[in-house]
Amino acid sequence: MIINQQEYNIKGLSYFIRLAEEKDAEALSSLRVQMDGETENMDREEGEAYIDAAGFRRIIHMDIEKSRNLFLVAVVAGEIVGYSRCEGRELKRFCHKVKFGVCVTRQFWGHGVGKNLLEKSIEWADQTGVEKMTLNVLASNDKAIELYQKCGFGIEGILKKDRRHADGQYHDTIVMGRFKD
Question: pTM higher than 0.85 for the full model?
């Protein structure tokens, strides 16, 4: 499915969302490390599970080829500032759903970038016949949970002491899902 680039102007910031392209791989590799170091809400610590440019090129190529995958980027003044990804599975018992993930650089929080990446992903999912979207979110990430609930996601479960951060403290993960109306 073709996703048309869409421009947004929110709180004085102009940006657009488009499909990821193989030429984005180098920027995505650096950006992922940066974002992992900016917040405790990500699954990884800074530099952990590093994906180089070649790895991102493979992911982008795979996502272009697979009808149940979507990789979007948010771009401000020619620079990628966030991205989201939906990944489906080929197994017949699970091909009705995709897993969603999103990240935005701290500098651009509060401008609707994550929300618009999510909404564009939901639009794609609904148009391509995806019946369910799932995601995991840190239980203390109240703003994200509120956004997901506003977009139709419900809490499906809590994974107790699912993560242990660098300070040694355990944190719960909330599993959320959204069924197509």
Answer: yes
